[in-house]
Recover the amino acids of this structure.
């Protein structure tokens, strides 16, 4: 049985990490990162079978791909907090000579990252490839992949949406972060996409919905998908709030790709109590 | 050591047939080798592999971008994926997928591209890519190989399957003379000397190697001593061989079925301008698209025929 309280504590520290990473380099994407903290904590601290000593091939392990690479601050925090690399390294986010590039990459050898992402729409295809390889090798573990909702506007997504059901990749779980926001505005205003659930159903996927900011629901839903083998890939349409956990960052696209000022960062951290110890930063933010 | 006398055409087959044969051999040698295609299995001449190893054949439909990503995922899990489609759809159409998910991510994916260049023929310019070597050569870490006949293509496929890292393998559609002896060793990144000479060096890649062989014979008959070097691996370039030959002859002709910008000619010029500045003639397309027609007619019309190689060499020698 999952300790939901403990997972929430971790997610809170991850949210602090996100603010401190983005403040530290005065760039990055805090909004979507905050919204996905619960999902990534659930995956790495409860749901997935994975080994932080890091095996690129993920043989016998579950694997996660981050297709919307711009929410890297949450990915880095969760990887560090689950033991892939030292938590202290979070202070190098987006700095020169760092393994923590603006968008995740394998290029600098950061443990936990299996493919570069940033140019949108590519991660689902890569996840399909790994899910297919697992099928070919008789490895019954599950491949998870996260995309943004705005990212669903990329054509390659729909090529992969055809591919996965055709190849009966029921070991693949695609999570669409349906926060309704993208960098230029609300997804409704930028490019109306209708219902993701209807679209994926029509493409032959098993569709589920969950509130991505309700830890208990996230854990329960992910675990259900993890063991489901019915010949169909799964798409979870996940409602989240961009900027979740920081009141002035919630509910709009304005914090999609913007760093907080010192005052704003102090305000944000005041709303997120330290639970696991902060990583050491150049500048400590105290009210 | 090869000489012009030993380079006899022993028959004709397409380089894509060489790909099919090489793929089967690579598949026999290593069960991690898998083939992907985007609705062009027939064109890739790979039925032997597909029928022998149906579980290692992945039909992706007409979705090249997805195919590149799937290949990256398969490689992440330890497979050796070979993506197959026409050269145009293997490069320009999916440049960003190759750049991010394969090259930057350092994935062991082999991009196997048929129907490159003008010799694709009647389908015309939409399909006749003449920019692909340039695009692929610019990607950090990408190995770029353009074999010249059936035997060399077959050997190249087996070599890239054993090599760890992303590779772009370019070959073609038409039936073409087979002239590289079957037992010739294929070494990635190593120039293959086809004849020794002192007056002019001809560096050639792909289908144009045969044109260069014919040209070298003519030039020799006219008393011009030709050093003919096959550059099958355009990247990494065998700089040592290129510099040594340019130093010896002081005159260089480059021959390729590609635009004059970005391909073999550019690669050689970049190398020589730094280490051994040498006068150079480019037998390549002159910054133009192609058109419909038969392969040989097109090579003739766009200045990639035997006589064009001969003329280029003579211009350099003031003859």
């Amino acid at each position: 049985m999952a300790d939901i309280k403990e997972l929430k504590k971790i997610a809170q520290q991850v949210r602090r990490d996100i603010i401190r990473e983005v403040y530290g380099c005065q760039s990055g994407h805090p909004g979507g990162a905050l919204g996905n903290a619960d999902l990534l904590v659930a995956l790495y601290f409860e749901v997935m079978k994975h080994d932080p000593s890091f095996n690129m091939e993920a043989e016998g392990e579950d694997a996660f791909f981050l297709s919307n690479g711009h929410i890297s601050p949450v990915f880095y925090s969760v990887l560090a907090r689950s033991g892939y690399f030292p938590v202290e390294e979070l202070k190098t986010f987006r700095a020169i000579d760092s393994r923590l590039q603006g968008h995740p990459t394998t290029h600098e050898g950061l443990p936990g990252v299996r493919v570069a992402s940033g140019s949108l729409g590519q991660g689902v295809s890569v996840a399909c490839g790994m899910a297919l390889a697992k099928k070919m090798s008789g490895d019954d573990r599950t491949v998870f992949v996260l995309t943004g909702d705005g990212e669903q506007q990329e054509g390659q997504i729909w090529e992969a949406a055809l591919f996965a059901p055709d190849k009966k990749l029921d070991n693949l779980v695609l999570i669409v972060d349906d926060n309704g926001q993208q960098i230029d505005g609300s997804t409704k205003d930028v490019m109306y996409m209708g219902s993701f659930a209807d679209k994926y159903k029509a493409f032959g996927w098993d569709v589920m919905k969950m509130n991505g900011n309700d830890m208990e629901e996230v854990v329960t839903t992910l675990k259900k998908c993890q063991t489901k083998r019915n010949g169909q890939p799964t798409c979870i349409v996940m409602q989240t709030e961009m900027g979740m956990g920081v009141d002035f960052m919630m509910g709009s696209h304005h914090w999609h790709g913007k760093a907080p000022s010192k005052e704003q960062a102090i305000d944000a951290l005041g709303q997120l109590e330290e639970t696991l110890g902060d990583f050491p930063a150049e500048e400590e933010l105290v009210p | 050591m090869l000489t012009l006398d030993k380079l006899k055409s022993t028959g004709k087959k397409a380089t894509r047939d060489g790909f099919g044969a090489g793929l089967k051999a690579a598949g026999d040698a290593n069960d991690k080798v898998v083939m992907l295609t985007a609705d062009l299995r027939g064109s890739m001449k790979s039925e032997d592999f597909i029928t022998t190893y149906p579980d290692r054949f992945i039909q992706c439909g007409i979705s090249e971008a997805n195919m590149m990503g799937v290949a990256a995922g398969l490689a992440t899990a330890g497979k050796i994926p070979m993506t197959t489609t026409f050269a145009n759809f293997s490069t320009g159409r999916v440049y960003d997928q190759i750049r991010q998910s394969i090259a930057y991510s350092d994935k062991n994916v082999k991009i196997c591209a048929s129907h490159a260049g003008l010799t694709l023929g009647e389908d015309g310019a939409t399909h006749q890519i003449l920019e692909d070597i340039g695009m692929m050569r610019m990607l950090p870490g990408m190995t770029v190989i353009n074999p010249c006949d059936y035997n060399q293509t077959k050997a190249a496929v087996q070599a890239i399957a054993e090599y760890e890292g992303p590779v772009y393998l370019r070959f073609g559609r038409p039936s073409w003379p087979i002239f590289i002896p079957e037992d010739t060793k294929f070494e990635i990144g190593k120039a293959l000397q086809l004849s020794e000479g002192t007056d002019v060096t001809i560096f050639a890649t792909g289908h144009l190697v045969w044109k260069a062989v014919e040209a070298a014979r003519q030039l020799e008959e006219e008393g011009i001593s030709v050093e003919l070097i096959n550059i099958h691996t355009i990247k990494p370039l065998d700089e040592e061989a290129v510099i040594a030959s340019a130093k010896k002859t002081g005159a260089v002709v480059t021959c390729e079925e590609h635009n004059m910008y970005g391909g073999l000619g550019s690669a050689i010029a970049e190398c020589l301008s730094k280490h051994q500045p040498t006068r150079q003639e480019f037998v390549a397309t002159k910054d133009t698209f192609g058109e419909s027609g038969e392969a040989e007619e097109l090579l003739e019309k766009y200045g990639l025929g035997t006589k064009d190689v001969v003329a280029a060499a003579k211009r350099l020698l003031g003859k």
Q: What stands out?
A: The mean pLDDT of chain B is 98. The interface with chain A takes residues 34, 55-56, 58, 60-61, 63, 65-79, 81, 96-97, 99-101, 104-107 of chain B (CB under 8 Å). The radius of gyration of chain B is 19 Å. The domain at 12-177 of chain B is CATH 3.40.50.970 (Rossmann fold).
